[in-house]
């Protein structure tokens, strides 16, 4: 749930922060940006797919991070970008 909150809070764009419950319509694979580098064997259950996902619900009540935590994460992401380490593995 923490990863979903980070995704909602750090997403670009206007409007309310949302966390959707989705189901895959095709094959899933472990997300190599998380599982191969940080958490081998995928204990975080982080996946990706090239196929569409179907929204089956929305979590309407969830707890986000404090303003200080958000700023620390943004600062850390900016530093990775500055150092050229903000890599997405395909």
TrEMBL record:
Residues 1-62 form the Rifampin ADP-ribosyltransferase domain. The keyword Ion transport does not apply. Pfam families: Arr-ms (PF12120). Keywords: Transferase. The keyword Transferase applies. It comes from the Bacteria. Residues 25-48 are annotated as: Disordered. One of its GO terms (molecular function) is transferase activity. This is NAD(+)--rifampin ADP-ribosyltransferase. It comes from Subtercola vilae. The gene is arr.
